[in-house]
Design a protein that fits this description.
This protein is α/β, with parallel strands linked by helices. The chain is built from 12 helices and 19 strands. Strand 16 and strand 17 form a beta hairpin.
Length: 404
């Protein structure tokens, strides 16, 4: 039997693509193996969002070529431009990669959690981005926003739930733009309403949402089927830096979004992204970001140091001092730690419902509806199942409790 291995770097969109590829290959009688040595086909799904992602993509390919000198290698994802084809390597965008292995129109292959390795199902609803932020290379690699057929997505969800998934994660490059390229009457709201109307037992998690897209689904956020966890990228707390980044919103607009969500009669976990050290971020502008973050109701922050991407507008600007960048990163990491501790403490004594992912030592571990990991004692739980857990303590920023 032909054996294959998949390496996936980057975002949830890449995870969704890799899982779709894995399911397709298994349906074609290929056998998955994590062992590079015995693979006949090796797939590398790359990421180029930062310099580190580029380095990791190259490093993995070099490792593959060193360990396995006979396997056919396929490279896809956002960093394909880094590589060249040769007698062993094929470079394809994801849709062409599926066609290479005879994907049929309308054929949906879904592996159950135990086989896929993922407790949650990542549903790719669109790809591409029409924004042109000055720091971001992704639109140049993923192209314009393109949405997937709504009836196919609904069918895919029904199949995934029937396979044992209890959480569906909507993924894409810019999911808030869903539907605009199909029809003026179709949007992310349309898709959510149809998903909410399905008579199946599952919950929905939204991946990163652009601030300007929240209004499209605001009144749906109280639906119990949608988890109370939102990730809304900010990137900077400085109006000037936001303008330099060409982010299409102001601090006031963003703040109004946060305040509106916090007024809903439901506890929410709100996370954000920050880029530290953008070329025009002076010490004064960084202090504005600190003040804004400290006074905002975030439960966590994903912190990225600015990474120059050739081809973007910001690449022409002079980068800030590396030592200064490192100091700013450390300051923001400490703020993030305090934010996490505060939110986690607010969950003590509550009953949460994590989706069970894996066993570690004497504990089971899963992701809660609020986006934080929970470890708990219990047994008789299947991968992908939702478990009610009483939270009794916090250990190293990890919620801990027991199944009830």
């Amino acid at each position: 039997m032909r054996k294959f291995t998949i390496f996936t770097l980057g975002c949830r969109t890449n995870i969704a693509e890799s899982e779709k590829l894995k399911a397709l290959l298994i349906s074609k009688k290929f056998e998955y193996t994590p062992n590079i040595y015995e693979s006949d086909y090796i797939f590398l799904n790359t990421c180029t969002v930062t310099h580190k992602a580029d380095r990791d993509s190259r490093k993995i390919l070099n490792r593959i070529k060193k360990i396995n000198e006979r396997a056919k290698i396929f490279i896809t994802g956002c960093a394909t431009y880094l590589f060249k084809e040769d007698e062993r390597i094929r470079i394809l965008n994801f849709n062409d990669l599926l066609k290479e292995f005879d994907e049929k129109d309308g054929n949906i292959n879904v592996l159950p959690p135990e086989e896929s390795g993922h407790a949650r199902y990542f549903l790719k609803i669109q790809e591409g981005c029409d924004y042109r932020c000055t720091f971001c290379i992704v639109p140049m690699r993923r192209g314009k926003s393109r949405s997937y057929d709504i009836s196919t997505l609904l069918k895919e969800v029904q199949i995934a739930v029937s396979k044992g998934y209890k959480e569906i994660v909507l993924t894409g490059t810019q999911i808030g733009d869903y539907g605009k390229d199909i029809d003026k009457t179709i949007s992310l709201r349309t898709l959510l309403e149809k998903l909410l109307s399905l008579n199946f037992d599952f919950r929905i998690r939204l991946s990163s949402l652009h601030p300007s897209h929240i209004y499209k689904i605001y009144d749906l956020l109280t639906e119990e089927k949608i988890v109370p966890h939102l990730h809304i990228p900010l990137q900077s707390g400085s109006e000037k830096v936001l303008r330099d980044m060409k982010r299409p919103y102001t601090i006031k607009f963003y703040d109004n979004i946060l305040n509106s969500i916090m007024k809903l009669k439901r506890r929410f976990s709100i996370g954000t992204d920050l880029i530290i050290g953008f070329p025009t971020e002076t010490k004064e502008e960084f202090l504005k970001t600190i003040r804004y973050i400290e006074n905002s109701p975030f439960s966590y922050i994903h912190i990225f140091s600015y990474s120059k991407r050739e081809g973007t507008e910001a690449a022409k600007l002079k980068e800030i001092d590396k030592k200064e960048l490192k100091e700013r990163m450390e300051i923001m990491k400490e703020i993030d730690k305090k934010k996490r501790e505060k939110f986690l403490n607010s969950l003590l004594g509550n009953i949460l419902e994590p989706v069970y992912e894996k066993k570690e030592g004497d504990f089971l571990k899963g992701l809660s509806e609020y986006g934080f990991k929970v470890k708990f004692r219990g047994n008789g739980v299947r991968k992908g199942e939702l478990v009610k857990v009483y939270v009794k303590e916090i250990e190293n920023l990890l919620l801990s409790g027991f199944k009830i």
